[in-house]
Design brief:
Shape of chain A: elongated
EC number (chain A): 2.8.1.4
Radius of gyration of chain A: 27 Å
Order of helices and strands of chain A: EHEEHEHEHEEEEEHEHEHHEHEHHHHHE
Radius of gyration of chain B: 21 Å
Number of strands of chain B: 12
Distance between the termini of chain A: 40 Å
Oligomer: heterodimer
Family (chain A): Belongs to the ThiI family.
Helix content of chain B: 40-55%
Strand order of the largest sheet of chain B: 2-8-7-6-5-3-4
Number of helices of chain B: 11
Strand content of chain B: 5-15%
Subcellular location (chain A): Cytoplasm
Protein name (chain A): Probable tRNA sulfurtransferase
Number of helices of chain A: 14
GO molecular function, one term (chain A): tRNA-uracil-4 sulfurtransferase activity
Order of helices and strands of chain B: EHHEHEHEHEHEEEHEEHEHHEH
Strand content of chain A: 15-25%
Structural class of chain B: alpha/beta
Largest sheet of chain B: 7 strands, mixed
Helix content of chain A: 25-40%
Largest interface: A-B, 12 and 19 residues
Chain lengths: 402, 383
């Protein structure tokens, strides 16, 4: 026996009043794009639910893709069988065994019978199908209040549908429904996770990375591109803006006392990010800061650094522990890349001691020696933008080799 | 020239050699070096890994570049057994494996492991039942080849893999050296943990290969040294060889799609024709890989036949190249229950994309003459 459909349930979409149609449309678009290479698969939308017709495609492979799509609350593979009592019994039994291979949990059967021509009332059918499952499994028992699995049988006019296994979706909102943000992507563990969580709330993502050759090398840049590529699995193509940051860092290093170097550097990064955000029409900046994690992320530091912009700064990780962040990083597949040991722009000029309680006025005072506008504009003008797509492609220069 | 010894090795494709030369001359840096030359070598190796993973439908992390089939089998078998010896000391393989597998198991026996060598049926196959019955609570590894290198039988890998899924501490290694590019195998669906591939059987270069290592499977490395290949295989990476292998793999898989039927046609045509020749018996089973045909001419020394054909610029072999220097009867032919007489007179033809039906026709013509004339000499002397 093989599943022929997958029923998709939306996450918060059903709450969203007038926008709902738009949200559904976006989700449908995303699902279709992500399932594009399964040739026979069809995706349809009806009455607050979405159906994937598998037409022979492997259920597990399709499920693997679906579980990464934001906006899906849960989904269930479904069996479609002829309107025949024996076949329905058999399919229900198969579905239970597929959901709980060890056959040692609890279940309940819920029959809906819009097709009144089919003999037997729903209650009788519940009993009949339930008995069939009990007789043919090892240690399954019935629990109508808190079952491990609910066997849903819908007897319609054209056929009967049986659902049992429910797989958890990624939740959140469909990507692209919440407008655009700019992610500050460093190459560490935190920022890709922050990007992922922002995507979960439906944003469209572009990323900015500060690159300081020769102090940071090409491997570090490659790493950031690879990280962005992982994020494309969740939100489609990502534009990555690479900022030449060497001149700024050198100037800061020259003119600002050690203890304020980090603070001032962060303020410059934020200014450059803000201007880039304006250029690309992004409405917020996302970063991977977590309160108190390092000197630049204390409340005083955030206060002093944040001063340079009015743009909302979204910090999805702000209250998270490092270990929680690492768990998510592992789950979304960025962790192994993040821990590759290349210098990034944050570590390279790291002074022996940074202020954990920097003072706004002092930061402003030290910056007076720097031509802020010039450095920011030069950095923004020097941005190189690369399009990161989800397809793993061979670099142009190597193409003929493979 | 008619080259029917493609299971011993194949002629590298020109494109493969071009790739090798280009990478070896232009990107010669050590991937572990920190400078830009090292970085570009590392990049190209990463891309080779990604590309080969894509071709094999696995994840890049699961690719370990090796020096070929023998290393792959040794690393998989010894590496898995030694790594997991705390979980049990029983291993299972079959009697018709390649020398690199069998000898690895013999070595492990000396280290104290118990090895069950499953016998095969007349078609060269082990059954799911046999595997199930051989499993004990101490079994930590089952190793089988997918396509037999001498007679071309195909093991029911997918079914055995599904069975082994019920034994979570037992790993499943498959020697896919003869199968790759000829008989499709889905690693994930077959629940394979380790799978060996060699490049020179698919028109790549000697000294390159891949060991597929399913994510989270740990191996005790054969080599001590640097942290290359996820620490499973120390030693400076063979960048040009690996890139060239990926090209060979791609070309071979393309050829598979287009012309595997041609191989089947040649193979079955030759089977029919050779059966007609007096004194020739076909050893390969009916259901077999499309590129291997094994036959015996009882009473004739197969080396003589190989030499006689060689003089006519036709190249075939006796048994596996790795065992052909031993005079004993083929362990595979004996394994499928053939008499000593049949087992010591085996001839193996093995094809690849590029062989034609015309070559097959010419082969039959020469072969039948050669058989007749040698037979005559032998029989005359007996009288």
């Amino acid at each position: 026996m093989k599943y022929n459909h997958i029923l998709i349930r939306y996450a918060e979409l059903s709450l969203k009043g007038k926008n709902r149609k738009e949200f559904e449309r976006k989700l449908l678009e995303t699902v279709r794009t992500l399932l594009k290479d399964f040739k026979n698969v069809r995706v349809q939308r009806t009455f607050g639910r979405m159906f994937v017709e598998l037409n022979g495609a492997d259920e597990r492979e399709v499920s693997n893709r679906l579980k990464n799509i934001f906006g899906i609350h849960s989904f269930s593979p479904a069996l479609k069988v002829d309107l025949n009592q024996e076949k329905i019994d058999e399919a229900a039994l198969w579905a239970v065994k597929d959901a709980i291979p060890a056959e040692n949990g609890t279940f309940k059967v819920t029959v809906k019978r819009p097709n009144k021509d089919f003999p037997g009332r729903s209650q009788e059918l519940n009993y009949h199908i339930g008995s069939h499952i009990l007789r043919n499994t090892k240690e399954m028992t019935v629990d109508v209040h808190h079952p491990d699995v609910e066997v849903k049988v819908e007897i319609r006019h054209e056929a009967a549908y049986i659902l049992c296994k429910t797989l958890k979706g990624a939740g959140g909102l469909p990507v692209g429904t919440a407008g655009k943000v700019l992610l500050m992507l460093s190459g560490g563990i935190d920022s890709p996770v922050a990007g992922y969580l922002a995507l979960k709330r439906g944003v469209m993502l572009e990323a900015i990375h500060f690159h300081s050759p020769p102090f940071t090398n090409d491997r570090a840049r490659q790493k950031v591109e690879d990280l962005a590529r992982v994020l494309t699995q969740y939100g489609g193509n990502i534009k990555l803006h690479i900022v030449p940051f060497t001149a700024v860092q050198q100037a800061i290093h020259q003119h600002v006392p050690d203890s304020y170097e980090m603070t001032v550097t962060r303020r410059f990064m934020l200014r450059i990010a803000e201007r880039t955000a304006q250029n690309i029409d992004a409405r917020a900046i996302v970063n991977g800061e977590s309160l108190g994690q390092v000197a630049s992320q204390t409340l005083d530091s955030m206060y002093t650094i944040n001063e340079v912009t009015n743009l909302p700064i979204i910090r999805p990780l702000v209250t998270m522990d490092k270990l929680e962040v690492i768990d998510i990083a592992k789950e979304i597949g960025t962790y192994d890349l993040s821990i590759l040991p290349f210098e990034d722009c944050c570590t390279i000029f790291l002074p022996p001691q940074s202020k954990t309680k920097p003072n706004k006025n002092k930061a402003n005072l030290f910056e007076e020696k720097l031509d802020i506008e010039k450095y920011v504009q030069e950095a923004v003008d020097g941005i190189e933008t690369v399009m990161i797509s989800s397809k793993k492609q061979v670099d142009e220069e190597f193409k003929e080799l493979f | 020239m008619i080259y029917f010894d493609n299971s011993a090795t194949t002629k590298p494709y020109d494109e493969v050699l071009d790739t090798y030369t280009k990478v070896a001359t232009e990107y010669f840096g050590n991937p572990s070096s920190l400078h830009p030359l090292g970085k570009i070598s590392e990049r190209i190796l990463t891309q080779a890994r990604e590309k080969s993973a894509e071709l094999l439908n696995v994840s890049p992390k699961e690719i370990v570049f090796t020096s070929g089939g023998t290393e792959g089998n040794n690393l998989a078998i010894k590496g898995a057994a030694r790594q997991n010896k705390g979980r049990g000391n029983h291993l299972i393989t079959s009697t018709v494996e390649h020398a690199s597998t069998l000898e690895a198991f013999r070595q492990l026996e000396q280290e104290g492991f118990d090895v069950t060598y499953l016998p095969v049926d007349s078609e060269g196959k082990v059954s799911i039942n046999q595997v199930e019955q051989a499993m004990t609570k101490d079994t930590i590894l089952v190793s089988l080849n997918h396509v037999n290198n001498e007679i071309g039988s195909i093991q029911p890998i997918e079914e055995i893999g599904q069975l082994l899924e019920h034994f979570p501490k037992c790993l499943f290694h498959v020697d896919h050296v003869q199968g790759i590019g000829k008989v499709p195998l889905d690693f994930y669906r077959s629940k394979i943990d380790l799978c060996t591939i060699s490049a020179h059987k698919i028109h790549g270069l000697k000294g390159t290969g891949i060991l597929f290592r399913r994510n989270s499977v740990l191996l005790n490395p054969l080599f001590s040294g640097g942290s290359q290949e996820g620490k499973f295989r120390a030693g400076t990476e063979n960048v040009p060889g690996s890139v060239a292998m990926v090209k060979a793999l791609r070309l071979t898989l393309d050829n598979f799609k287009q012309s595997v039927q041609n191989l089947e046609t040649i193979n079955s045509w030759l089977e029919t024709e050779c059966r007609e020749i007096e004194g020739v018996f076909i050893n390969s089973p009916k259901n077999r890989a499309p590129h291997i045909l094994n036959m015996s001419i009882p009473g004739l020394k197969p080396e003589v036949v190989v030499q006689a054909l060689g003089e006519k610029d036709i190249y075939v072999s006796t048994k596996s190249a790795c065992s052909s220097k031993h005079a004993e009867p083929s362990h595979v032919l004996k394994g499928i229950g053939l008499s000593d007489e049949r087992a010591e007179s085996g001839i193996r033809l093995s094809f690849s994309y590029g062989n034609t039906l015309d070559e097959a026709k010419e082969f039959v013509e020469v072969f039948s003459k050669v058989v007749r004339s040698i037979k005559k000499v032998v029989e005359d002397r007996e009288v």
